[in-house]
Amino acid sequence: MRDWLQLQKRLLPELIELLKKRYTILHQIMLSDCIGRRTLATSLQITERVLRAETDLLKAQGLIEIDSMGMRISEEGRQLVRQLEPLMGELLGMRHLEESLRQAFGLSQVIVVPGDSDVSPAVKDELGTAACSALSSVMGKEDVVAVTGGSTLAAVADQLTSATPWKGNWFVPARGGLGESLEYQANTIASTMAKRVGAQYRLLHVPDQLSEEAYQSLKQEPNIQEILRVIRQARIVVHGIGDAQVMAARRKVDEATREELKRQGAVAEALGYYFDRDGRVVHTMLSLGLRLEDITRTEVVIAIAGGKSKGEAIAAVLRHGHEDILVIDEAAAVEVLKHSGLDVPTGRLEQ
Protein backbone atom coordinates (compact mmCIF):
# COMPACT_ATOMS: atom_id res chain seq x y z
CA MET A 1 0.00 0.00 0.00
CA ARG A 2 2.77 2.41 0.89
CA ASP A 3 4.45 2.05 -2.53
CA TRP A 4 1.12 2.86 -4.18
CA LEU A 5 0.70 5.92 -1.98
CA GLN A 6 4.18 7.12 -2.78
CA LEU A 7 3.41 6.89 -6.51
CA GLN A 8 0.14 8.76 -6.06
CA LYS A 9 1.90 11.41 -4.01
CA ARG A 10 4.43 12.02 -6.78
CA LEU A 11 2.05 11.84 -9.76
CA LEU A 12 -1.10 13.40 -8.31
CA PRO A 13 -0.25 15.17 -5.04
CA GLU A 14 -3.38 17.31 -5.27
CA LEU A 15 -5.56 14.18 -5.40
CA ILE A 16 -4.07 12.88 -2.14
CA GLU A 17 -4.70 16.19 -0.37
CA LEU A 18 -8.27 16.35 -1.70
CA LEU A 19 -8.95 12.79 -0.55
CA LYS A 20 -7.63 13.60 2.92
CA LYS A 21 -9.74 16.75 3.13
CA ARG A 22 -12.99 15.09 2.06
CA TYR A 23 -12.43 12.04 4.24
CA THR A 24 -11.73 14.26 7.26
CA ILE A 25 -14.96 16.22 6.66
CA LEU A 26 -16.99 13.03 6.25
CA HIS A 27 -15.39 11.38 9.27
CA GLN A 28 -16.02 14.40 11.50
CA ILE A 29 -19.69 14.51 10.44
CA MET A 30 -19.96 10.82 11.31
CA LEU A 31 -18.43 11.36 14.74
CA SER A 32 -20.67 14.33 15.46
CA ASP A 33 -23.94 12.57 14.56
CA CYS A 34 -25.45 15.94 13.59
CA ILE A 35 -23.44 19.13 13.16
CA GLY A 36 -23.92 22.63 11.74
CA ARG A 37 -21.72 24.01 8.97
CA ARG A 38 -20.28 26.83 11.08
CA THR A 39 -19.38 24.48 13.94
CA LEU A 40 -17.77 22.02 11.57
CA ALA A 41 -15.80 24.75 9.78
CA THR A 42 -14.44 25.99 13.11
CA SER A 43 -13.56 22.46 14.21
CA LEU A 44 -11.69 21.73 10.97
CA GLN A 45 -10.21 25.23 10.74
CA ILE A 46 -11.42 25.90 7.20
CA THR A 47 -13.68 28.64 5.84
CA GLU A 48 -17.43 28.13 5.56
CA ARG A 49 -17.20 28.90 1.84
CA VAL A 50 -14.75 26.04 1.24
CA LEU A 51 -16.73 23.73 3.48
CA ARG A 52 -20.02 24.53 1.71
CA ALA A 53 -18.54 23.51 -1.64
CA GLU A 54 -17.27 20.22 -0.23
CA THR A 55 -20.45 19.33 1.66
CA ASP A 56 -22.60 20.14 -1.38
CA LEU A 57 -20.54 17.61 -3.33
CA LEU A 58 -20.80 15.01 -0.54
CA LYS A 59 -24.57 15.52 -0.47
CA ALA A 60 -24.83 15.14 -4.25
CA GLN A 61 -22.97 11.82 -3.92
CA GLY A 62 -25.48 10.64 -1.32
CA LEU A 63 -22.83 10.48 1.42
CA ILE A 64 -24.41 13.03 3.77
CA GLU A 65 -27.85 14.47 4.45
CA ILE A 66 -28.46 18.15 5.17
CA ASP A 67 -31.54 19.67 6.81
CA SER A 68 -32.38 22.60 9.09
CA MET A 69 -30.85 20.78 12.09
CA GLY A 70 -27.48 20.28 10.43
CA MET A 71 -25.53 17.64 8.55
CA ARG A 72 -25.66 13.88 9.12
CA ILE A 73 -23.78 11.05 7.47
CA SER A 74 -25.84 8.62 5.39
CA GLU A 75 -25.51 4.86 5.68
CA GLU A 76 -23.66 4.85 2.37
CA GLY A 77 -21.29 7.49 3.70
CA ARG A 78 -20.71 5.50 6.90
CA GLN A 79 -19.82 2.40 4.88
CA LEU A 80 -17.41 4.43 2.74
CA VAL A 81 -15.63 5.81 5.83
CA ARG A 82 -15.18 2.29 7.21
CA GLN A 83 -13.84 1.02 3.87
CA LEU A 84 -11.35 3.90 3.66
CA GLU A 85 -10.08 3.58 7.24
CA PRO A 86 -7.00 1.40 6.49
CA LEU A 87 -5.88 3.68 3.64
CA MET A 88 -6.60 6.88 5.53
CA GLY A 89 -4.83 5.60 8.61
CA GLU A 90 -1.68 5.55 6.48
CA LEU A 91 -2.35 8.90 4.81
CA LEU A 92 -3.26 10.74 8.00
CA GLY A 93 -0.34 9.35 9.96
CA MET A 94 -2.19 7.03 12.37
CA ARG A 95 0.01 4.05 11.45
CA HIS A 96 3.14 6.16 12.01
CA LEU A 97 1.89 7.18 15.45
CA GLU A 98 1.02 3.59 16.32
CA GLU A 99 4.44 2.27 15.37
CA SER A 100 6.27 5.12 17.14
CA LEU A 101 4.38 4.45 20.38
CA ARG A 102 4.71 0.69 20.07
CA GLN A 103 8.48 0.86 19.73
CA ALA A 104 8.96 3.59 22.34
CA PHE A 105 7.18 1.70 25.11
CA GLY A 106 7.66 -1.93 24.06
CA LEU A 107 3.95 -2.54 23.49
CA SER A 108 2.60 -5.48 21.53
CA GLN A 109 -0.12 -3.41 19.84
CA VAL A 110 -1.20 0.24 19.58
CA ILE A 111 -4.45 1.48 18.06
CA VAL A 112 -4.76 5.22 17.33
CA VAL A 113 -8.13 6.71 16.38
CA PRO A 114 -8.37 10.16 14.73
CA GLY A 115 -9.40 13.19 16.76
CA ASP A 116 -9.33 14.51 20.31
CA SER A 117 -11.84 13.20 22.85
CA ASP A 118 -11.34 16.38 24.91
CA VAL A 119 -12.98 18.28 22.04
CA SER A 120 -15.38 15.73 20.55
CA PRO A 121 -17.28 13.28 22.79
CA ALA A 122 -17.87 11.15 19.70
CA VAL A 123 -14.14 10.36 19.58
CA LYS A 124 -14.60 8.59 22.92
CA ASP A 125 -17.10 6.31 21.20
CA GLU A 126 -14.47 5.60 18.54
CA LEU A 127 -12.03 4.73 21.33
CA GLY A 128 -14.67 2.39 22.74
CA THR A 129 -15.16 0.67 19.38
CA ALA A 130 -11.40 0.24 18.89
CA ALA A 131 -11.00 -1.12 22.43
CA CYS A 132 -13.77 -3.64 21.80
CA SER A 133 -11.90 -4.84 18.74
CA ALA A 134 -8.69 -5.18 20.76
CA LEU A 135 -10.48 -7.08 23.52
CA SER A 136 -12.18 -9.44 21.04
CA SER A 137 -8.81 -10.23 19.45
CA VAL A 138 -7.34 -11.53 22.71
CA MET A 139 -10.43 -13.06 24.33
CA GLY A 140 -10.32 -16.82 24.75
CA LYS A 141 -12.67 -19.36 26.28
CA GLU A 142 -13.53 -19.15 29.97
CA ASP A 143 -11.45 -16.00 30.42
CA VAL A 144 -11.85 -13.68 33.38
CA VAL A 145 -11.69 -10.00 32.38
CA ALA A 146 -11.17 -7.34 35.07
CA VAL A 147 -12.25 -3.79 34.21
CA THR A 148 -11.89 -0.45 35.95
CA GLY A 149 -14.40 2.38 36.12
CA GLY A 150 -14.50 5.74 34.37
CA SER A 151 -16.11 7.42 31.39
CA THR A 152 -13.76 5.87 28.84
CA LEU A 153 -14.46 2.32 30.06
CA ALA A 154 -18.17 3.15 30.05
CA ALA A 155 -17.78 4.01 26.34
CA VAL A 156 -16.18 0.61 25.78
CA ALA A 157 -19.12 -1.10 27.48
CA ASP A 158 -21.59 0.86 25.34
CA GLN A 159 -19.86 -0.24 22.12
CA LEU A 160 -19.28 -3.89 23.03
CA THR A 161 -21.07 -6.48 20.91
CA SER A 162 -20.24 -10.02 19.94
CA ALA A 163 -21.63 -12.17 17.14
CA THR A 164 -20.63 -15.19 19.21
CA PRO A 165 -21.77 -14.92 22.85
CA TRP A 166 -18.95 -15.35 25.37
CA LYS A 167 -21.00 -17.58 27.63
CA GLY A 168 -18.03 -19.14 29.39
CA ASN A 169 -16.35 -15.83 30.19
CA TRP A 170 -16.55 -13.67 33.29
CA PHE A 171 -16.37 -9.89 33.69
CA VAL A 172 -15.40 -8.53 37.11
CA PRO A 173 -14.51 -5.11 38.55
CA ALA A 174 -10.76 -4.66 38.97
CA ARG A 175 -11.36 -2.91 42.30
CA GLY A 176 -14.06 -1.43 44.49
CA GLY A 177 -15.79 1.59 43.09
CA LEU A 178 -18.80 2.56 45.19
CA GLY A 179 -18.92 6.33 45.54
CA GLU A 180 -18.35 7.14 41.86
CA SER A 181 -21.24 8.09 39.59
CA LEU A 182 -23.24 4.91 39.08
CA GLU A 183 -22.72 4.74 35.30
CA TYR A 184 -18.94 5.04 35.74
CA GLN A 185 -18.51 2.48 38.51
CA ALA A 186 -16.48 -0.62 37.71
CA ASN A 187 -19.36 -2.81 38.90
CA THR A 188 -21.75 -1.18 36.42
CA ILE A 189 -19.26 -1.45 33.55
CA ALA A 190 -18.46 -5.10 34.28
CA SER A 191 -22.14 -6.08 34.39
CA THR A 192 -22.96 -4.09 31.23
CA MET A 193 -20.13 -5.73 29.29
CA ALA A 194 -21.18 -9.19 30.43
CA LYS A 195 -24.82 -8.67 29.49
CA ARG A 196 -23.92 -7.36 26.04
CA VAL A 197 -21.95 -10.49 25.11
CA GLY A 198 -23.88 -13.12 27.05
CA ALA A 199 -21.09 -13.62 29.59
CA GLN A 200 -21.27 -13.89 33.38
CA TYR A 201 -20.19 -11.36 35.98
CA ARG A 202 -19.38 -10.91 39.64
CA LEU A 203 -19.53 -7.65 41.59
CA LEU A 204 -17.44 -6.18 44.39
CA HIS A 205 -19.64 -4.04 46.64
CA VAL A 206 -17.05 -2.01 48.52
CA PRO A 207 -16.08 1.69 48.40
CA ASP A 208 -13.38 3.02 46.08
CA GLN A 209 -11.14 3.98 48.99
CA LEU A 210 -11.19 2.71 52.56
CA SER A 211 -9.92 3.62 55.97
CA GLU A 212 -7.35 1.25 57.45
CA GLU A 213 -9.94 -0.09 59.88
CA ALA A 214 -12.53 -0.71 57.15
CA TYR A 215 -9.93 -2.27 54.88
CA GLN A 216 -8.77 -4.75 57.52
CA SER A 217 -12.36 -5.61 58.43
CA LEU A 218 -13.70 -6.09 54.90
CA LYS A 219 -10.83 -8.20 53.65
CA GLN A 220 -11.67 -10.76 56.35
CA GLU A 221 -15.23 -11.20 55.05
CA PRO A 222 -15.65 -14.62 53.37
CA ASN A 223 -17.78 -13.19 50.53
CA ILE A 224 -15.20 -10.49 49.83
CA GLN A 225 -12.36 -13.02 49.91
CA GLU A 226 -14.21 -15.23 47.43
CA ILE A 227 -14.80 -12.48 44.86
CA LEU A 228 -11.20 -11.25 45.27
CA ARG A 229 -9.99 -14.74 44.38
CA VAL A 230 -12.02 -14.56 41.16
CA ILE A 231 -10.73 -11.07 40.35
CA ARG A 232 -7.12 -12.15 40.83
CA GLN A 233 -7.64 -14.97 38.33
CA ALA A 234 -8.17 -12.40 35.56
CA ARG A 235 -6.15 -13.18 32.43
CA ILE A 236 -7.10 -9.81 30.88
CA VAL A 237 -7.22 -6.39 32.57
CA VAL A 238 -8.81 -3.39 30.82
CA HIS A 239 -8.17 -0.02 32.46
CA GLY A 240 -8.29 3.71 31.90
CA ILE A 241 -5.72 6.38 32.76
CA GLY A 242 -6.46 9.65 34.52
CA ASP A 243 -4.76 12.90 35.49
CA ALA A 244 -3.63 12.62 39.11
CA GLN A 245 -5.27 15.77 40.44
CA VAL A 246 -8.47 15.30 38.45
CA MET A 247 -8.85 11.75 39.77
CA ALA A 248 -8.02 12.78 43.33
CA ALA A 249 -10.72 15.47 43.21
CA ARG A 250 -13.25 13.07 41.67
CA ARG A 251 -12.61 10.57 44.45
CA LYS A 252 -12.88 13.31 47.08
CA VAL A 253 -9.36 12.72 48.36
CA ASP A 254 -8.63 14.98 51.35
CA GLU A 255 -6.72 18.20 50.80
CA ALA A 256 -3.64 17.05 52.72
CA THR A 257 -3.26 13.98 50.47
CA ARG A 258 -3.78 16.06 47.34
CA GLU A 259 -1.02 18.43 48.44
CA GLU A 260 1.22 15.45 49.11
CA LEU A 261 0.50 14.14 45.61
CA LYS A 262 1.61 17.50 44.20
CA ARG A 263 4.76 17.48 46.34
CA GLN A 264 5.65 14.00 45.11
CA GLY A 265 5.10 15.00 41.50
CA ALA A 266 2.12 12.73 40.80
CA VAL A 267 0.81 13.29 37.26
CA ALA A 268 -1.17 10.12 36.56
CA GLU A 269 -3.55 7.62 38.14
CA ALA A 270 -4.42 4.09 37.04
CA LEU A 271 -5.88 1.16 38.97
CA GLY A 272 -5.69 3.10 42.24
CA TYR A 273 -1.96 3.89 41.88
CA TYR A 274 -0.53 7.38 41.40
CA PHE A 275 2.57 7.78 39.20
CA ASP A 276 5.12 10.55 38.73
CA ARG A 277 6.51 11.60 35.34
CA ASP A 278 9.08 8.81 35.38
CA GLY A 279 6.44 6.14 35.96
CA ARG A 280 7.27 5.59 39.63
CA VAL A 281 4.43 4.81 42.04
CA VAL A 282 4.29 7.67 44.57
CA HIS A 283 0.97 6.92 46.27
CA THR A 284 -1.38 3.94 46.57
CA MET A 285 -5.05 4.12 47.46
CA LEU A 286 -6.19 1.75 50.18
CA SER A 287 -8.82 -0.26 48.32
CA LEU A 288 -9.80 -3.84 47.66
CA GLY A 289 -9.18 -5.41 44.26
CA LEU A 290 -6.24 -6.00 41.97
CA ARG A 291 -2.82 -5.14 43.37
CA LEU A 292 0.15 -4.06 41.29
CA GLU A 293 1.78 -7.47 41.72
CA ASP A 294 -1.42 -9.06 40.34
CA ILE A 295 -1.35 -6.78 37.31
CA THR A 296 2.29 -7.52 36.49
CA ARG A 297 1.38 -11.22 36.40
CA THR A 298 -1.65 -10.65 34.16
CA GLU A 299 -1.23 -12.05 30.65
CA VAL A 300 -2.88 -9.16 28.76
CA VAL A 301 -3.23 -5.58 30.02
CA ILE A 302 -5.17 -3.17 27.79
CA ALA A 303 -5.02 0.58 28.51
CA ILE A 304 -7.57 2.93 26.95
CA ALA A 305 -7.22 6.71 27.20
CA GLY A 306 -7.69 9.80 25.09
CA GLY A 307 -7.65 13.57 25.04
CA LYS A 308 -4.76 15.99 24.61
CA SER A 309 -4.98 16.93 28.30
CA LYS A 310 -4.04 13.37 29.32
CA GLY A 311 -0.86 13.13 27.27
CA GLU A 312 1.55 13.52 30.20
CA ALA A 313 -0.48 11.13 32.38
CA ILE A 314 -0.56 8.43 29.70
CA ALA A 315 3.20 8.76 29.11
CA ALA A 316 3.86 8.33 32.84
CA VAL A 317 1.80 5.15 33.11
CA LEU A 318 3.39 3.70 29.97
CA ARG A 319 6.84 4.33 31.45
CA HIS A 320 5.87 2.13 34.39
CA GLY A 321 5.55 -0.56 31.76
CA HIS A 322 2.77 -3.01 32.62
CA GLU A 323 0.62 -2.47 29.48
CA ASP A 324 0.55 -4.76 26.45
CA ILE A 325 -2.07 -3.02 24.28
CA LEU A 326 -2.77 0.71 24.09
CA VAL A 327 -5.90 2.26 22.57
CA ILE A 328 -5.53 6.03 22.29
CA ASP A 329 -6.75 8.99 20.25
CA GLU A 330 -4.57 11.05 17.92
CA ALA A 331 -4.32 14.14 20.12
CA ALA A 332 -3.20 12.14 23.15
CA ALA A 333 -0.77 10.08 21.04
CA VAL A 334 0.97 13.23 19.81
CA GLU A 335 1.24 14.58 23.37
CA VAL A 336 2.65 11.27 24.67
CA LEU A 337 5.42 11.41 22.08
CA LYS A 338 6.15 15.06 22.91
CA HIS A 339 6.35 14.35 26.64
CA SER A 340 8.67 11.46 25.87
CA GLY A 341 11.00 13.65 23.83
CA LEU A 342 10.24 11.68 20.67
CA ASP A 343 9.65 12.89 17.11
CA VAL A 344 6.01 13.30 16.15
CA PRO A 345 5.19 11.88 12.68
CA THR A 346 3.64 14.51 10.43
CA GLY A 347 1.40 12.04 8.61
CA ARG A 348 2.62 13.34 5.23
CA LEU A 349 4.40 11.00 2.86
CA GLU A 350 7.94 11.88 1.94
CA GLN A 351 8.56 13.07 -1.60
From TrEMBL:
Domain CggR N-terminal DNA binding: 19-88
Positions of the Sugar-binding domain: 92-338
Keyword Transcription assigned: yes
Domain of life: Bacteria
The family this protein is said to belong to: Belongs to the SorC transcriptional regulatory family.
Claim: DNA-binding is one of the keywords in the record: yes
UniProt entry keywords in alphabetical sequence: DNA-binding, Transcription, Transcription regulation
Name listed for the protein in its UniProt record: Sugar-binding domain-containing protein
InterPro entries for this protein: CggR_N, NagB/RpiA_transferase-like, SorC_transcr_regulators, Sugar-bd_dom_put, WH-like_DNA-bd_sf, WH_DNA-bd_sf
